[in-house]
Each structure stands twice: as C-alpha cells, then as structure tokens.
C-alpha cells in the first residue's frame, strides 16, 4: 500500500516536473524567437508603418502585428532616400579604407572607374560654368537643359542668367553666384538663348574661359520664326499684326524683323568662330530633339565628356501634348504649356518664301559647321 502511494506520488511529481520544464522551455522559446520577430516587425514598422499598437496587439491577440496606418508616399520616399544615402556613405568609407590599405575588390575598382558619383561627400560650391547653351531662342533650349539635368554629373542653373547680354556689368562673381552649387566632377551649365545673337558675348565668354564648351541648338529657321512670332503674340502685344504682315513687306521677307534676323544662323555663328574653334561647339538638331530626344542627348553627353548615363528610361512620350517628358522614379515632368504652343496657320506661299530666303544662309551655316540639317 505504502509502495503504491509512493509510486503515485512519483508519477505526479514527474508530471509536475514535465509541466514545469515545458513552461520554462516555452518562455525561453518565446523570448528568443517571438521577441526577435517582434523586433523585426518593429524595425520594419519604423520604415513603413506606425508601431504604436504593436505590443498591445501581440499580447492580447497572440499574433504578429502588421498594423497598417496612413503613411504618405513622401514619408516612404524619404526613408528610402535615407537608406540609400546610408548605404552610399558606407560604401564610400569602405572604398576610402580599401584605398588606404591598397586593397580593392574588382567591384570597387569598377565602381571607381565608372565615377558616376566621383565626389560624394564633398561640399557643393558655386563655380563658373564649364559649358553654356548659348541658343538659339525657340529651338528647344529649355527641353535640352532639362533633359541634360537628368545626368547626375550636371549642375544646371534653372532660370536664364542673361549675364553676357544684360548683366555683364555685375561682374563675374555675381555670375558665379547665380550658378547651381556643384561638387567636383560635375559640370556646371546655364542656358541663355540670347547669347547667340549678342555681339559681345563671344568675346566676353572667351575672356572668362577660352576652353569653355558651347552648345547650340538649332531648328528649321522658318519654323523658328513662326515659333518666335507665336511667343510674342501670346503676350498680347496689341499692335502686333498677323504673321504674314509681320514677316513680309511688299511681298518680300522683311529682313528688319528680329525673328527673321535670329534665324539667319550663319551671320551670328561667324562671330563665335572668330573666338572659338569649331571643336569647342556642338550643334543639336532641335527638330530631332522634339521627335526623338535620346540620340541627340547621347551626342551632347559625349560632347561634354560625361559618362554614359542618359537612357530611354529618362523619357516618355506624352500623347496629350505630343512631346517627350522627363520620367523619374518618383515624379515625372513635362515642360510648361509655354513650350509647344499652337502655331498660327501660315499659307504655303509664305512658308515657301521664307524657306527660299533662308536657304543660302542655311548652306553657309552647314559649311561652317561641317554638318547638315534636314531643312527644306
Ligand atoms: N520635350 C519638349 N517639350 C516641349 N517643348 C519642346 C520639347 N522639345 C522641344 N520643344 C520645343 O521647344 C520650343 C521652345 O524653345 P525654347 O525652350 O528654346 O524657347 S525659349 O527661347 O526659351 O523661349 C517649343 O517651341 P514651340 O513649339 O514653338 O512652342 C517646343 O517645340
């Protein structure tokens, strides 16, 4: 009897012991694994979700919390940028250390060679431009600058500076202070389309920097005149006559009309060639830039000595406007409605007169630049 009681006690004791072991083990497993998962969930929540109710939800309901609350796209984008910057900084530190120690992986060497971001971490400063888009007005100068700016090694000044035509007496230091801050390795650039026709601009730009790179965008001169006229007309100039009366005088092209003068490209170009070798100039086909920007942009990229970056991913065709726009990871951008205005209807007779008028100037221009454009 006494033995059987002892055995029963033993069984109960073993059972209690097992229960205790299971409880301790489960607590241990919870703290080790479930707590780890909770931390992971919290870390994740730091980036995407609010974790305010995380602990309470877990404790009361016993399941992992994925409590989604309102988070704006900007918040997520900011966090992603923070992470990217962190990774980039870490990489730069690693590269620096590797350079100091003289050990570099093949990947690091490749990365440095590519030099997409040669000076991350440097302080941005304002420097004089290394390249200028000098014109021509109404040929696509804005589109060209905006498209160029998609390149990480371009620091483009947004507004037109008009230093060499209107603000020259303010001095070079004023000019420098108008530039977008840049880091070493970036090319600072500005566009002011009126430089192309400003008599003193070639000389003054040359005296600032005789090895500066000059980019000129041109377009069929007749279309350019119509575009120029449309721009002035859009400003509501009250005394502006219709296109035909403005551009013709007694049936002949009115050479005193400024828009006509601007389209006589060869006359203006000669002044530039008096100061700069042709090799320092690049001519963009503005008509092609409208129809298919990538090939033109690749040529500009090469001319400026930039690493290969701009690709078809940077553009998309906007059916509504009939123009290419800039595509971005988080935002895309089309030029304002002042670009791509509807032109007035012009009779074929007037168009032909303008084309005949510009033809000899065009031929001269093609000879000067050793390049032809497909203008009628
Ligand atoms: N992608 C894209 N989107 C919109 N517009 C484009 C584009 N590419 C070139 N263009 C043409 O740019 C013309 C305006 O030229 P500019 O920027 O040089 O004009 S300005 O001199 O700065 O006023 C403007 O001329 P108009 O069409 O006569 O308005 C456009 O045809």
TrEMBL record:
Disulfide bonds join 325-334. The lineage of its organism: Eukaryota, Metazoa, Echinodermata, Eleutherozoa, Asterozoa. 3'-phosphoadenylyl sulfate binds at residues 138-142, 219, 227, 324, 339-343. InterPro entries: NST/OST, P-loop_NTPase, Sulfotransferase_dom. Pfam families: Sulfotransfer_1. Transmembrane segments: none annotated. Keywords: Disulfide bond, Glycoprotein, Transferase. SUPFAM superfamilies: P-loop containing nucleoside triphosphate hydrolases. One of its GO terms (molecular function) is [heparan sulfate]-glucosamine 3-sulfotransferase activity. Residues 129-359 form the Sulfotransferase domain. The active site is at 138 (for sulfotransferase activity). The keyword Transcription does not apply. It comes from the Eukaryota. This is Sulfotransferase domain-containing protein.
């Amino acid at each position: 009897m006494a033995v059987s009681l002892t055995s029963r006690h033993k069984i109960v004791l073993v059972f209690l012991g097992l229960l205790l072991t299971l409880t301790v083990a489960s607590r241990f497993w919870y703290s080790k694994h479930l707590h780890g998962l909770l931390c992971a969930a919290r870390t994740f929540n730091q980036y995407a979700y609010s974790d305010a109710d995380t602990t309470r939800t877990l404790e009361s309901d016993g399941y992992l919390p994925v409590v989604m609350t309102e988070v704006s796209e900007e918040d997520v984008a900011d966090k992603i940028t923070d992470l990217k910057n962190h990774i980039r900084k870490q990489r730069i530190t690693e590269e620096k250390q590797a350079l100091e120690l003289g050990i570099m992986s093949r990947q690091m060497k490749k990365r440095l060679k590519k030099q997409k971001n040669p000076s991350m971490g440097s302080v941005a400063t304002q420097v004089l431009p290394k390249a200028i888009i000098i014109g021509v007005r109404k040929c696509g100068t804005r589109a060209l600058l905006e498209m160029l700016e998609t390149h990480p090694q371009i620091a483009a000044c947004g507004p037109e500076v008009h230093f060499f035509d209107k603000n020259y007496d303010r001095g070079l230091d004023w000019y420098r202070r108008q530039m977008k801050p840049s880091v070493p390795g970036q090319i600072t650039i500005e566009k002011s389309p009126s430089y192309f026709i400003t008599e003193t601009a070639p000389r003054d730009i040359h005296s600032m920097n005789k090895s500066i790179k000059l980019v000129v965008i041109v377009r069929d001169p007749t279309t350019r005149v119509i575009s120029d006229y449309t721009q002035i007309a859009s400003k509501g100039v009250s005394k502006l006559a219709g296109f035909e009366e403005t551009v013709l005088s007694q049936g002949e092209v009115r050479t005193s009309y400024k828009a006509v003068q601007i389209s006589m490209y060869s006359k203006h170009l000669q002044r530039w060639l008096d100061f700069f070798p042709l090799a320092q100039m690049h001519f963009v086909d503005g008509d092609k830039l409208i129809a298919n920007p990538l090939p033109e942009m690749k040529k500009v990229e090469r001319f400026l000595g930039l690493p290969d970056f701009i690709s078809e991913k940077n553009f998309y065709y906007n059916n509504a406007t009939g123009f290419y726009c800039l595509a971005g990871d988080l935002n895309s951008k089309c030029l304002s409605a002042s670009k791509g205005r509807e032109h007035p209807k012009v009779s074929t007779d007037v168009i032909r007169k303008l084309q005949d008028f510009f033809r000899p100037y065009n031929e001269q221009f093609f000879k000067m630049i050793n390049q032809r454009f497909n203008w009628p």
